[in-house]
Write a structure and sequence with these properties.
Layout lengths: L4 H15 L4 H8 L3 H9 L6 H11 L10
Helix pairs in contact: 1-3, 2-3, 2-4
InterPro entries: Cro/C1-type_HTH, Lambda_DNA-bd_dom_sf, TransReg_Diox_bact_type
Pfam families: HTH_26 (PF13443)
Keywords: DNA-binding
Length: 70
């Protein structure tokens, strides 16, 4: 079974977050999200809005395209 785009983006968020030594809780706080929502986003269990992805990119200090390099 192939991965959904939500799962691929979620994995990229985890990869980038861990490369930057940011905890899931810390990223959630920077985005003003609950940790449980960040967990669902990283697992690909939610279809994130563009504004949600914008908040994540801003918090990680990355360009949007970085989320889609898989």
């Amino acid at each position: 079974m192939s991965e959904t785009i939500q799962q691929k983006v979620g994995k990229r968020i985890v990869e980038i977050r861990t490369q930057k030594y940011i905890s899931q809780q810390e990223l959630a706080s920077k985005c003003n999200f609950e940790k449980s929502n960040m967990s669902r986003l990283e697992k690909g269990n939610v279809n994130a809005t563009l504004s949600t992805l914008e908040k994540v990119c801003d918090a990680l200090q990355i360009e949007y395209i970085e989320l889609f390099k898989f």
